[in-house]
Automatic annotation (TrEMBL), chains A, B:
Protein name: Phosphoserine aminotransferase
Subcellular localization(s) per the UniProt record: Cytoplasm
Binding-site positions, L-glutamate: R43
Enzyme class per UniProt: transferase
Cofactor requirement: pyridoxal 5'-phosphate
Metabolic or biological pathway, per its Swiss-Prot or TrEMBL entry: Cofactor biosynthesis; pyridoxine 5'-phosphate biosynthesis; pyridoxine 5'-phosphate from D-erythrose 4-phosphate: step 3/5; Amino-acid biosynthesis; L-serine biosynthesis; L-serine from 3-phospho-D-glycerate: step 2/3
Residues involved in pyridoxal 5'-phosphate binding: A77, S78, W103, T153, D173, Q196, N238, T239
Quaternary structure, from the entry: Homodimer.
Residues bearing the modification N6-(pyridoxal phosphate)lysine: K197
Alphabetized Pfam families for the sequence: Aminotran_5
NCBIfam families: PRK05355.1, serC_1
EC number: 2.6.1.52
Main localization category: cytoplasm
Length: 361, 361
């Protein structure tokens, strides 16, 4: 068996090795029951126990208040881009959206098909290298909610603060930042996150929704996209993605064993400090993002000369440092350093970057 | 490690042991690449290779004509109940539906929210114990398509013929019968099937759609629910359920190794004959379905005295025969004998049924 690589993929992303080992050990025979989790009825006592424990562990990790529902759904964040207006906008309603990059613009584009979108602030004026301060936001009085993207996975831009939107429901795409540190869920109306970065495998999206936002779906919202139907059925209106739910549950247990989100915050902070310090101290690598708005999870960087990209990536791969190529829309490099990417991976990357700079700088 | 049980669950259902063993062996390290399939970018060469091979194997198994797209989507068959009218009905359009049981009625209910549904035939007059012959169908001239449910998973009612609907697109929910035997795909406009019965794990739904039916989505159909968007992006408009797709691919390879769908037809025919013969020969067990319309995959049966249900199930469980309890809406027993349920499982069940009847008959 070959050595496991260090995987800097933006998603589907690295998973904790200990979690994969548990899943492997019980793949044909879960806890002596003689069958795989994948072969269990979603309504069996065994699977319902797995599902409920996963929800409770996630609630504990994030200290989710009791007036919020936690939903385990399908379709990823992209399906949420439609599902949110279909559930919250009403007929011909209006919402405020903040544009900080590619993912927030995708959310804006889809929401515009269901009602009026007011782009209350945009990072465009900063070339998407900085987040507009709240003093620049033009929130509208009649918005049904305010949507933003706390972390832009491609741009590498992250809010280190939670917007104050008064009594409007704040809606956040936390796909690439959820569980990276503690969060005050009570500040939000709705949080959603595709699983394949910090939660588990792809094919699952977690929605945390304040209960007073349920029951407002548009009359033609597909039943499967109505949050209140999912909430009333414990996310089992139909067969859920059982294996992804189970594996996410193993990750929640692993996070608790690491010491919860306070511990992850310390580790993730150390990881991002090391990587940005290495970039900032070098003559070869640059990160364009305003220092206060740099993402902890997705660190894009460029080499001074594009012609060095290929040898850099080839050398990285030789050393077992995988998936460092930046998103095709922006080029350069990107290191995604989610919870499951250990500090040792960042150490190995930083050492390689120094070695490469010495050779090519 | 305990013995693997015989699992008669209606879904999520049994998976071939050989497939689970392969998945287990490469769970942490796929083909020496040092990472799990779950950790691969869906746009990596490795995963694209896995995805394309899965699609090709499915096309080969079903001899899918080249003018059909094969899509790997999320949300299960229940999401298709909305997605089909959103894509095919147009604004205020009309469609014909055939009512043969609980699942077709769910499809009817959801479609009715998007246009006019003409129930062209119903098994209600037969207490859902027989399928109305085509001479009883009242198809309408203006239907955009004709929808039916070739196999009713709960009722245990199955079409052994393909309806003739002229030049209307025939749409079929094949969740619990796909891949159980050869199929003439060219007779259909659209076939859909939730994976968790005969395809793979839950969280995946396969759609096979004739290309001329693409590009007709309603203006407010969510982008993620538009078949033409999925088709144009190779089912990767956003991150697909990669592990479920991979595992389904392993099952398609396994089916090819078994000899393809002709071989599965022989095996499945033998399995269903044995089980129905045991029921029909007994004084204790009954199946109410018209013999010509009996399901090969889902075999419901009742004991002459309901008070024997509990001891029957307890004795079955002691012998490693699991999930024989019928659906809560109909009671009694149900044995789902999908592709991955071996003939030995049916033999063990038939032997137990005889033993139980001797003791309690």
């Amino acid at each position: 068996m070959s050595k496991r690589v260090f995987n800097f993929c933006a998603g589907p992303a690295a998973l904790p090795e200990a979690v994969l080992q548990t899943a492997q050990a019980e793949l044909l025979d879960w806890q002596g029951k003689g069958l795989s989790v994948m072969e269990m009825s979603h309504r069996s006592d065994e699977f319902v126990g797995i599902a409920e424990r996963a929800e409770q562990d996630l609630r504990d990790l994030l200290a989710v208040p009791s007036d919020y529902k936690v939903l385990f759904l399908q379709g990823g964040a992209s399906q949420q881009f439609a599902q949110i207006p279909l559930n919250l906008l009403g007929e011909g309603g209006s919402a405020d959206y903040i544009d900080t990059g590619i993912w927030s613009r995708k959310a804006i584009e889809e929401a515009s098909r269901y009602g009026h979108v007011n782009v209350a602030a945009s990072a465009k004026g900063y070339d998407y290298f900085a987040i507009p301060g709240q003093n620049e936001w033009q929130l509208s009085a009649d918005a049904a909610y305010v949507h933003y993207t706390p972390n832009e996975t491609i741009g590498g831009l992250e809010f280190n603060w939670i917007p104050d939107v008064g009594d409007k429901p704040l809606v956040a795409d936390m796909s690439s930042t959820i569980l990276s540190r503690p969060l005050d869920v009570s500040r939000f109306g709705l949080i959603y996150a595709g699983a394949q970065k910090n939660i588990g495998p792809s094919g699952l999206v977690v929605v945390i929704i304040r209960e007073d936002l349920l029951g407002k779906a548009h009359s033609r919202c597909p039943t499967m996209l109505d949050y209140s139907v999912a909430a009333a059925n414990g996310s089992m209106y139909n067969t859920p993605p059982t294996f992804a739910w189970y594996l996410s549950g193993l990750i929640f247990q692993w996070l608790r064993e690491q010491g919860g989100l306070e511990a992850m915050q310390r580790i993730n902070d150390a990881k991002q400090r090391k990587l940005y310090a290495a970039i900032d101290a070098s003559e070869l690598y640059t990160n364009p993002i305003n220092v206060a708005d740099r993402s902890w999870m997705n660190v894009p960087f460029r080499l001074a000369d594009d012609r060095l990209d290929k040898p850099f990536l080839a050398g990285a791969e030789e050393r077992g440092l995988l998936n460092l190529k930046g998103h095709r829309s922006v080029g350069g490099m990107r290191a995604s350093i989610y919870n499951a990417v250990p500090e040792a991976a960042v150490d190995a990357l930083v050492a390689y970057m120094a070695e490469f700079e010495k050779q090519h700088g």
